[in-house]
Design a protein that fits this description.
Its EC number is 2.8.2.-. This protein is 41% helix and 9% strand. By secondary structure, the protein is α/β, with parallel strands linked by helices. The chain has a domain of 202 residues: Rossmann fold (3-Layer(aba) Sandwich), CATH 3.40.50.300. The strands form two sheets. A four-stranded parallel beta sheet has the order 4-3-5-6. A two-stranded antiparallel sheet has the order 1-2. The model has no long low-confidence stretch (mean pLDDT 85). Bound molecules: adenosine-3'-5'-diphosphate.
């Protein structure tokens, strides 16, 4: 396994610590190298907040079931959009792409993304948020499959015991994607300053779950595609949790390095996993970190 293997150590770039697999340095190179134009779309998220879903929706809207060039070239099925994964083999392909729009994804913190370049070239930004309780639960189930979390170095950061796991995670001790001891909520805050900029669409996972037709139409309008009712229904159906999961099962699981991108796809699973104290800790952190924004997470 290339990305999440056992010997993997964290990488630090500009004070941000990244888990194994991330190539934040190469992503920076990519920003300098790739051509960006006004048709391109960047989907920025924190892990486990609905990235794969939104990438799937944008793809369905733009290309239907036709694979893009990048998909044809890519060996790592789910990583081809990410600027910071599997980069080495990817940039050369990116340069040759013939399809009209590029759909990029990134989990990088905002200060590491060259938003100036994206904006100057008129590219669009979609940012997705999800309530931090379900995000935490989704994260635990996701990383369980990775060999690195069982290695000597990482084991203390990824306890087997469920309660301990969340305690460590919520204390910001898993070095995930943000400056030391900071995490998801701080990353949202960094991106949220773009909320009212031109060419920016903020989406909420739970709203997409509750009103897929409305939210998917919003995405289509944003990327300049008008859909008939029939087309819209088709995108909703093709990007439902059940359809996407089924579709993903057709491809060899090896393509994804053991990463499972489709687990439950529900709102409120946190109630089955977090203790009351952990849930209250999240409530306090949300107030402390995002209290001065208009973000109100949906927990059920
Ligand atoms: P759960 O682990 O709670 O099920 P990401 O793509 O950012 O890694 O996020 C993964 C989460 O989104 C997982 O959450 C996954 O099941 C959920 N998901 C993926 N596709 C989905 C879809 N079509 N509808 C709803 N949720 C989806």
């Amino acid at each position: 396994k290339i990305l999440f293997g056992e010997g993997a150590l964290p990488k630090e770039v500009d004070g941000y610590l990244f888990p194994p697999g991330f190539e934040p340095d190469s992503a920076k190179v990519a920003y300098d190298q790739i051509e960006i134009n006004e048709d391109d779309i960047l989907i920025a998220t924190y892990p486990k907040t609905g990235t794969t879903w939104v990438v799937g929706i944008v793809h369905q809207i733009l290309y239907g079931d036709n694979p893009t060039d990048l998909e044809k070239y890519s060996t790592l099925q789910f990583f081809f959009h990410y600027l910071e994964f599997g980069a080495v083999c990817k940039y050369d392909v990116w340069k040759k792409l013939s399809f009209p729009r590029q759909v990029f994804a990134t989990h990088l913190p905002e200060p590491l993304v060259n938003m100036k370049k994206f904006k100057a070239n008129g590219a669009k930004l979609i940012y997705v948020i999800r309530n931090p309780k379900d995000q935490a639960v989704s994260w635990r189930h996701f990383v369980k499959n990775f060999a690195y979390t069982k290695s000597e170095f990482w084991k203390p950061f990824f306890p087997e015991d469920e309660k301990e796991f969340y305690d460590v995670y919520l204390a910001g001790n898993q070095h995930a994607f943000a400056k030391k001891r900071k995490g998801y909520l701080e990353c949202i805050k960094e991106w949220y300053k773009h909320k009212n900029d031109e060419n920016v669409l903020f989406l909420v996972y739970e709203e997409m779950k509750k009103n897929p037709h409305i939210e998917i139409k919003k995405i289509a309008d944003f990327i300049g595609k008008s859909l008939t009712d029939e087309q819209l229904n088709n995108v909703v159906e093709k990007t439902s949790f059940a359809s996407m999961k089924k579709e993903s099962e057709k491809t060899a699981p090896d393509n994804n390095e053991g990463a499972q991108f489709f687990r439950k796809g529900q709102i409120g699973d946190w109630k089955n996993h977090l203790t009351v104290a952990q849930s209250e800790l999240i409530d306090r952190k949300v107030k402390e970190i995002l209290g001065d924004t208009d973000i109100e997470f949906i927990y059920e």
